[in-house]
Structures are given as C-alpha cells and as structure tokens.
Amino acid sequence: MSVIISPSLLSADFLNLGQEVGMVNQSEADWFHLDVMDGVFVPNISYGMPIISQIKKAARKPLDVHLMIVQPERYIQAFCQAGADILTVHLEASIHLHRTLQEIKSMGMKAGVALNPHTAVNQLEDIIQDIDVVLVMSVNPGFGGQSFIRHSLEKVRKLRQLIETTHSNTIIEVDGGVNLATGKQLVEAGADALVAGSFVFNSPDPAKTIKELKAL
Questions:
Q1: Rounded to 10 degrees, what is the CA torsion of 86, 89, 95, 101?
Q2: Predicted confidence (pLDDT) per residue in 29-82, tens digit
Q3: Where would I find the beta strands (DSSP E) of 21-140?
Q4: What residues are labeled active site?
Q5: Pairwise CA distance, residues 175 & 186, whole Å
Q6: Beta carbons of 115 and 97 less than 8 angstroms apart
Q7: Which of 59, 103, 172, 177 has the fewest CB atoms within 10 Å, measured from its CB?
Q8: Cβ atoms within 10 Å of 208's Cβ, excluding its own
Q9: DSSP 3-state helix, strand, coil percentages of the chain (rounded to 5)?
Q10: What is the pLDDT of residues 113-139, one digit of tens each?
Q11: Are 194 and 6 in contact, with CB atoms under 8 Å apart?
C-alpha cells in the first residue's frame, strides 16, 4: 500500500483558500490535514470550526483534524458537526484518553492520538488497540517550517513494533519537517501517513510535490 499524504492547510494561502483546497482535491493527496491551535496547549492560534466547516463544503477527501488544544473532549461534537472525519487529540492534553477516544468513535469519526516529541511510545501500550491513528510529532507543535527531529525515526520503529506485537490496525502518521528525504526515511521506519505543510505549499508546483511524496 502506498503512503498516505495529508497536506497541512496551515501552510496554505488563506487569501486563496478555495483554490488551495481545489489543488489538494485534484492532486494525489489522500487527506486534508487541519491543525487547530488554542494558544494555550501550544504557543500559537490557528483556526477553528467555522473555517473547517467551509473547507468541508469544498473538500472531496477526508478531513484529518489535529486538535492542539486543552480539554479537547469539550469540543468533540462541535468538530464532528464541522466535518472532521479523523479527530486527533494529544495524549498530553487528555486526562481521560480512553473515554475521549470512545466518544470520538461513537460519533462516527476515526480516533487519533498525537504524541509530542518528548512523549514515549510505551505510554500507548494499554490503549493502542483503541486508536485508529497515532500522530507522531517530529517537531514541537505550534509552528510550521521547523527542522525534523531525528529521534522521531526511532519512535516510529518502536510504534511499528508495538502495533505488530498487539495485532492492532493503527495507522502511523508523522507531522513535522517532512520532505522527500525525511519522508523516505519515515516510510522505511514504518510510517503509513505523512503530513507536509510548508514543503508542499511553498514549492513551485504543490501538486507535483504531493505526487513525489506519494511515490515514496
């Protein structure tokens, strides 16, 4: 199976957001990656439900929504109504993670768990079989365009081993510093899905860049 590509609209041109969504629709990308930041859990603020609702109207591919917010359980229904197909919460922000994942699934969405760079994979041992997607942050969350943290490759390997040992169906997604070189290494380490923001949208031909990532 080829790698899943999820371009991050955080790096898109928001003055021409409709055109950017159209480009992703027509490209070989699989998902739209949408980063929601609250200025509390991460030191930045992005967009919320109104923008996602508008993107949903035009998107022809699943919305992969990453909540970088405190108390994500308060907003599960709101993001479902906005159009999220995959809803990912941070392990570090979720006190009752199992309950949160069950609620996400009960509304028909795929449930994801994100790990900050400092968070060990073994913290997922007791819940991996309840997770549809694990999002490994290969930069510190909050801003695009950061350099890839190389230890992330080892985290992906450990996560792949955990998934295989427990016979889970979990997808490994990686976000941060993804380009053709790091993307290839991540796929070789066991990643199933790659998030790319600035590398895609700052390139001369974003659709071609997506195609090149897809071919890894």
A1: 10
A2: 999 999 999 999 999 999 999 999 999 999 999 999 999 999 999 999 999 999
A3: 32-37, 63-68, 86-90, 110-115, 133-137
A4: 35, 175
A5: 10
A6: no
A7: 103
A8: 13
A9: 45, 20, 35
A10: 999 999 999 999 999 999 999 999 999
A11: yes
